[in-house]
Design brief:
By secondary structure, this protein is an alpha+beta fold. Helix 2 (64-71) crosses helix 3 (79-86), helix 10 (280-289) runs parallel beside helix 12 and helix 11 (324-330) packs across helix 16 (441-456). Keywords: Membrane.
Amino acid sequence: MNGENLEQNVENLYTRNNTLQAKRGSIYDINGNPIAVDATTYKMVAVLTDEWSTPNRPIHIKEPDKVAAVLSEHVSMSEEELYDRLTKENSQVEFGSAGNNLTFETKSAIEEALEEENLTGITFEEKKSRLYPNGTFASHTVGLAQQNNEEENEITGVLGIEKEFNDSLSGENGWRRYQRDRFGYVLPDMGVEEVLPVNGNDIHLTLDRRMQIFLESIIDEVNAEHKPANLTATLMHAKTGEIVATSQRPTFNATTKEGIEQSWQNLLVEFTYEPGSTLKVITLASAIQEGIFRPYDYFKSGQIQIAGETVRDVNPRGWGNITYLEGLARSSNVAFVKLVEEMGHDTWKEYLDDFGFGEPTGISLPNEMAGSNPYQWPIQRLNTSFGQGLTVTPIQMLRAFSAIANDGKVVDPHLVKSISNPDTGEVKNFEQKETQTLISEETADKTLEYLKETVYSDEGNARGYQIEGHEIVAKTGTAQFVNPETGTYHRGGTNYIYSVVGMAPADDPELIFYITMQQPELNGLGHASQVIQKIFNPVMKRALEYFSTDEEVNLNEEESETLENTVQSRTSDIISQFEEKNREYSVIGSGDTIVQQFPAADTEINDSYRILLLTNGAMTLPDLTGWSRSDVLRLADLTGIEVEFEGEGYVTDQSVLPESFIETGSTVSVKLTPPNDPLNE
């Protein structure tokens, strides 16, 4: 009638099509600890108007005083605040952070309490979210999944592993179709058609949660004190290519999203730079393989004229006539140029290609860069001998170093250990690819032996990287980089990219640790290498102890345990339990019942975690002294307060006194001080 299909209109009026959401797969570390998991949260809404109600089916607030009294027992708002909300001249109201991101336990408790009192008007909107219980944790590498603007309640990976494996993690949604009456009830004798969803796969990474958390904590302190423009640090198993821990600065907190605007670039695979003298490890191995590295032959150090250009050592006056072994220890550019001259440009180019420079590694991360090796002009070719005139990524350098640590065979760095189907139990393991032999085992052994000179000889420029109780090899690097405004190299001060590669144990390395740092502030130190040592030395020492075969040493100082669910438990009971277990916790609010917690239940925790417990009733501000920036941001996320930061480091002062009442939207200023500042001791 009038061009309309009335039968279809009736069908549309009474037919409901629902999407059955697939559960997004979880991401775990190598020991099964959760890194990223799906979470269903709920937003509480109060219906204040009666226009959608019927006499027999009221759905609005009829007794705001009684409803406020019930709600105050389950959310972090006072009875007076709730009553004010419930009596506004609106059709419906929300409750800010106090009524948002509620757990299923809190939602169910509210519904049950309202039903007992025969109270109406409170509804809940279900929301899918992605939970990252570790906060700042290899954030650019693990990645981020968030609400898809085009698909309601759909989570999509937008960064890192979450993006690279989005299809596998997402699964496939199902659907349900049925007939209903005007109140939404299913019509009798009408069948329900449905296709069940296929849940996403779980991904198990090679990252080790304990080492990752330790690395993040060390980098946090160094970053706060020395403020480099960027920084990368990656620890890898030398024999398998499994990445144990990796981090960068700038980074972001995946829980609060704090810092995400600083950079979306994953420096591990997207940062290209001239590597500097750490590439001499590869030059040395190639020269040994060609039989031209004669450690006790002499050469004149300082500078050399090549192809009309001058190549200089870091000390242009040189150290006189020295052996090539001393030239390695002192990182003489002249020594390595002479080696490439003797080796031949074409031969050296073959080695660079074989070691993978100019080609992506194929690691399972989006947007991997290939680097570049133009190798056009004579001086450009020679400069590659000491890491200038070509660009690399950190992951390429790790792949190349693996050949030295692995008897001459290169292994591909990788992050994914396996993919499993949680419903069927089917597991797909990512086996190590067959390795390519680039140099002989004898060459690899000699390279390691000679590299000890940089750490243990009197002339070695890596002496500060010695690890007590362990013998290691290491090579430092200092590289220029181009000023985009002038098109020329930065010069002077700390306008360089500093780096170090370390392998340990020295005679048969199990671990490779590679760090890069651009333009740090020295703050009284003599050289940027001393800044890098603040990361390298404690992390490598911890890793060597952690992966030791000695069972007693293998126990990490921070024993982990699973955090139980505290929501809807009595506050006093949980405090007593936590006191007995010597857990670090803070209570927000003076209520007698826990309504929210961080981290979530079933999260693996250790002494590095600060547990936040949000109670019912009015919110109160804890004593923030000693809290990290991340801790304060988690508090802000739970309570909805605004935080203004001054400085870097840990909290030493706060504008609102501890135990003062706070409200969503109120502002608290905190002062942060670096950990080694006298104010923080």
